[in-house]
Write a structure and sequence with these properties.
This protein is mainly alpha-helical and 433 residues long. It contains 17 helices and six strands. A three-stranded antiparallel sheet has the order 1-2-3, with no helix packed on it. A three-stranded antiparallel sheet has the order 4-5-6. Helix 6 runs parallel beside helix 7 and helix 11 packs across helix 16. The protein is globular, with a radius of gyration of 24 Å. The termini are far apart. The structure holds carboxymethyl coenzyme *A. The site of carboxymethyl coenzyme *A (CMC) has 20 residues, from helix 16.
Length: 433
């Protein structure tokens, strides 16, 4: 077996002096060439989309895309989804260890102490159009929290960071549920702290002042799993956005609001809503071939939603858990013959046997089945990405706190390969052709 390299050398074909760079190793995954000093040699690296660039050090989450492995602080996602609740996983992401019983009780009590929204925040909801997308509302309301909690927004103070983390984690379900209630024109339901995190969200979504709502324990557990599966996923687009915004010292609410905006795109968190829309449009197994043909056509921008991933080159482990959860939820609700689920299973089978998808290693991702589970639970399509955002808040705040505590962190400031005009002289308007 070859030993790990400690140095790499860049040579140039014009006889310029070679540049020697250190190679760094983490505890798992690819080594990285430390290029921080390259600028001194008047050369940069070019990597649009960060295909091969590590922008930070992190010890929170690790993905092995070839093996389909996802670890949070070393624990496999399958074990966390099976045995933990969402707040335990959030604690793990924030503090690095699973809580013992006392720590868990204290953490839960601190979170539940922050679940209510400031009464004036309800006025901000009312400023939106009735039919505003819940993600648009969440971006606005979370950003506006910066105007409410300036008592604890010193990002370099660990206690302030922790308080902001509690506030975000605690209030996000209330904000997400209220954005839905606002769409419906229903009164906002306040949190009930005797319920657990998942049940409380379902209560705020589905209860009304005139109808009690008792969450079905199987559905609540399935919802909890959805939250756990979406809690963190390494340096994805929205997490990198949170880090980049936060790198300037911006407050946590502004940073997380930017993360929500990034998540909304259909290539990222918006894929769950887009997948269900695609399955509904497809409607029937007989139309699968037509959609697969379009996905393979390079002249068509259409992609099979819920398929493919930048990092996974095998099955997304979250998709396998979600598929199992789908069975459990549909069985519980007596929807064994759900046509959309059947269609999804058939589409998965056909795509996994198709040369195009096989050769490009395109497998179903977490978003392929999550929409089916949420739809069966009575959650409307427009809320799917909002629920992803509420879950991902746990990862965003852990990553944001890690960055702010890291003495090596610097403001994010990528370089560019300039392809515009070189310097030229101003031409008065009368002389322009
Ligand atoms: N359908 C058809 N072709 C695809 C798909 C797809 N869903 N995904 C990738 N490809 C093709 C793509 O056309 C390209 O082909 P070629 O090499 O011939 O140009 C090749 O596969 C590589 O694709 P890419 O866009 O260069 O890969 P990427 O790493 O930049 O993009 C992705 C990853 C997730 C954005 C992409 O696979 C995609 O758009 N998938 C559909 C949207 C989706 O389901 N997103 C959810 C991601 S998981 C949840 C989350 O973490 O947010």
């Amino acid at each position: 077996m070859s030993t790990k390299p400690t140095k790499a050398t860049i040579t140039f074909d014009n006889g310029a002096k070679p540049i020697e760079l250190p190679v760094l190793s983490g505890t798992a995954g690819n080594d990285v060439i430390d290029i921080r000093t390259l600028g001194k040699h008047d050369v940069y690296t070019y990597d649009p989309g960060f295909m091969a660039t590590a922008a930070c050090q992190s010890n929170i989450t690790y993905i092995d895309g070839e093996k389909g492995l996802l670890l949070h602080r070393g624990y496999p996602i399958e074990q966390l989804a099976e045995h933990c609740d969402f707040l335990e996983v959030s604690y793990l992401l924030m503090y690095g260890e699973l809580p013992n019983a006392t720590q868990k009780a204290e953490f839960t009590s601190r979170i539940t102490g922050h679940t209510m929204l400031h009464d004036q925040l309800s006025n901000i909801f009312r400023g939106f159009r009735r039919d505003a997308h819940p993600m648009a509302v969440m971006i606005g309301v979370v950003g506006s929290m910066s105007a409410f909690y300036f008592d604890s927004m010193d990002v370099y103070n660990p206690e302030h960071r922790e308080t902001s983390a509690f506030r975000l984690l605690a209030k996000m379900p209330t904000i997400a549920a209220w954005s839905y209630k606002y769409n419906l024109g229903h009164p906002f339901m306040h949190p009930k702290n005797k319920l657990n995190y998942a049940e409380n969200f379902m209560h705020m979504m589905f209860a009304t002042p005139c109808e009690e709502y008792t969450p079905n324990p199987i559905l609540a557990r399935a919802f909890e799993k959805i939250l756990i599966l979406h809690a963190d996923h390494e340096q994805n687009a929205s997490t990198s956005t949170v880090r980049l915004v936060g790198s300037s010292g911006a407050n946590p609410f502004a940073s997380i609001s930017a993360g929500i905006a990034s998540l909304w795109g259909p290539a990222h968190g918006g894929a769950n809503e887009a997948t269900l829309k695609m399955l509904e449009e497809m409607g029937d197994v007989s139309r699968i071939d037509q959609f697969i043909k379009r996905a393979k056509d390079k002249t068509d921008s259409f992609r099979l939603m819920g398929f493919g991933h930048r990092v996974y080159r095998s099955m997304d482990p979250r998709a396998s858990i979600m598929q199992k959860t789908c069975y459990e939820v549909l069985n519980e609700l007596g929807l064994h013959d759900d046509p959309i689920f059947k269609l999804a299973m058939q589409l998965e089978k056909i795509a996994l046997e198709d040369d195009y998808f096989v050769s490009k290693k395109l497998y179903p991702n977490v978003d392929f089945y999550s929409g089916i589970v949420m739809r069966a639970m009575g959650i409307p399509n427009s809320m799917f990405t909002a629920i992803f955002a509420l879950a991902r808040t746990a990862g965003w705040i852990a990553q944001w706190s890690e960055m702010n505590a890291d003495p090596e962190h610097k403001i994010g400031r990528p370089r560019q390969l300039y392809t515009g005009e070189a310097r030229r002289e101003f031409v008065p308007i009368g002389k322009r052709t």
